[in-house]
Structure formats: C-alpha cells, structure tokens
Input
Amino acid sequence: MSIRGKQKADYDESREKIPPKERELWLDERLRDVVQYANQKVTPVRDKLRKAGITPNEIRSIKDLEKIPVTTKDELVCLQREDPPYGGFLTVPVNTLSRVYVSPGPIYDVFGSDRVRAYVRHFKAAGFAKPGDIVINTGSYHMVPFGMVYTDALDMLGVTVIPAGVGQTELQVQIMHELAVTGYVGFPSFLMSIIKKAEEMGYNFRRDFSLRWAIGAGERHIQVLRGIFEKDYGIEISQMYGTADVGVLAYECTVKNGMHYNDEDAIIEIVNPDTGKQCPPFEEGEVVVTLLSKIYPLVRFGTGDLSSYTDEACPCGRTSTRLTAITGMIGDHVRAKGMFIHGRELDEAMSGFSEISKYQMVLSLRGHKDIIGIKLETKQAVDQNALSDAIRKRCKEVFKLTVDEIDFVAEGTLAEQHKKFVDQRWAS
Ligand SMILES: [Zn+2]
Output
C-alpha cells in the first residue's frame, strides 16, 4: 500500500488485451469478492443490501449490480457527515495510509500505489513518457493528488520530471525552452497560455521548443483545444476521466476513439438515472462506479456524470469497454428560446478562447422573451467588442442560439465553484 520510494510499475500489458470473455469472468470474480467483503466490513453497504432485500450471494455478475440501488453523491456526503470523514467506507485505520489528499468538499482521498498504477497505464496506453523524456508537471502539489500522483507515475516510468506546479507562466516558458522539455502534465488551457506567452516573448513555439505530448487532465471538453495543439503546434494530447471520489476511471489509448475503462480498479456501469438499469451501448446514462478496493470498497456510487459506452473492438488491442465521452452532468442543462443548451455545449463554445478564465450563462426575461446572457472573466485585458463578436458567432455555431448580452466582470466576481447556468426567469 505504501507509495514511498521507487516501485516497479506492475504493469502487465497482456492483461490489457485478454480475450473479452476471459475479461468478463475476471471482472465478475473480483466483483463477487469485493461485494462479499464490503458487506462484511462496510456498514452503509450492508444497510443498502438489506434494505433492497438482497444478499451478497445474489451478486454474481455485473448485470446483477442492477439489484443494488445507486448511492448518490448527496447520500455519500450525508454518510460522510454522520461518520466523518469516510462515511464508514474506509476499512483500514487512517494512520496506515501513506498519504491523504484533500480535494474541495472537502473530500479526503484514499490513496495507495494501486491508484498510481492507473496513471502509469494511461501513459502506456497513450504511448507517452518513454525513457529520455523530460516532463514538466504543472499540476498542484498542495492538498490535491494532481501534482504528486503524476510525478509518482512518471517516476515509475523512469522519466525526468520537473515539479513546476501551477502559475508563473513566463518561468514555465523559460524552463521548457532551456531544458528542452518533451512532455507536459497539467490543464490543457494552461498549456495554451504557456504557448501564447512564449509567442509574446518572441519565440516560434514549433521551432524553438521540443514539446511532443501533453496529458490533458481536469478539463472535460478539450476537443477544440486538441485540434489547435495537434494542427498548429504538433503536440499530441491524451485525456483521461476520473473524479476526486473514485480516482481514474478511464483513459485514451493512441487510437483516441473513446476512453478505456480502468477495470483493474473499478467496475463501471452506464445506468439510466430514472430506472437504475444498465443502458445498452451508445445510450446516454450516468457513470456508476464500484471500486474493486479492499481499502475503500464503494459499491454502486453514482458520479452524476453522463456518458455512454461502446464494446466494439479497439484497434489498439485492449479489450476493455470504452466510454465514448463525458457528455454532461445530471441536471446540467437549461432550456431557452425553446431549445436545450447543455453544459457541454457551453464548454465547447468557450473552449476556443484561451483568454477567458471563467464563464457563466445567465437567463433572464424581457417582457416574455428569453434573454441569454454570458458573464465572463478574462485573464488579461482584451478587445471586448472583438471578443464578444467571436463568442456570439461561436455560440451560434455550437448551440444554434443568439447570445443577447455579454458582460465582462472583474476577476474574482464568479466564485471558484460557480454554477454554469443561472436562471433568473423564475425569480419574483
Ligand atoms: Zn484502444
């Protein structure tokens, strides 16, 4: 469990590519084991099964999980409040854990070397972080796992890491240039800021820098940025999906056609939020997770994220199922001027503007007419008229509606965890 010191990656390529039927049996076997274990050790799981009138012996396969009601994020928060800080899910004493990270909430992340290995698998699947690479890690090293866990994974892979942390764009440019950095870990939008800063400083990024790849973490809608990175700068991007509650859940391979399930660590289901039943391939549902962990065996936890899956064979040879994309969050949409606007569409429309740091859509009424407004914070002084025109055009392309008002607000006006949509139309 300790992640102190160097460890072997324990990465078994052959297990990534075992025949699908064998994989199914392997997953079912581990699922049965963890449900039995959780039923013995974790009171909320035992209560959940009892209330549903089922015994752990009835959970023989992933399909059987449908019998267990999903534990929502709100339920988990309640359980954590009643029995802080882990809600009864942690099966070992806290002082036997090698690290405890604290994500906003606060969520106390349970971390062992098993979680680090998921990041190693992502690097391997993406074809990144090979001997000879010099990697700059711009993730935060304070409280949250980001900076440390990526550094642990890169350490296992034997590459050189610069633990740069967040901010100091100009210094990051200098480091990347002087040390001929080849790989980047951090937010894609911050990488774009670094590139723009380098250009401001008179560099030609493609010619003067050695950056070949970037791991995109923490931002779910990087498709637009990805196109710019690949076409304009020759930088390959690979993304993963995970949450602070459950760690890495899926990651891209070199094919970049969906994200392979991290089924070494978790059973993932796509579940119809209304019925609790598993969805067929390509149908949108909630991502529901059962952790195959003896330390923190969460059973059927609903992440609140929406996605769909495909079980079609992937050309890379990995036989795990793939998430197609994260398409939004439950309840993450509004209706205006007779049409739906999804959070993912707003993200997509805004993702091409690297100068924007925060945004929020505000819906109001003028007479009986819906008014669509967007509040914006920018990282630097901008030509507001030109940017407004560009945003209006992009929004029209993405969600087919005209934005009526664009309001530039001072930095810090929008809270860190601000809502994507504010609907003032129902206010008295
Ligand atoms: Zn693949």
The mean pLDDT is 89. The pocket of zinc ion is lined by residues 253, 255, 260, 314, 316, 318 (CB under 6 Å). DSSP finds twelve helices and 19 strands in the chain.
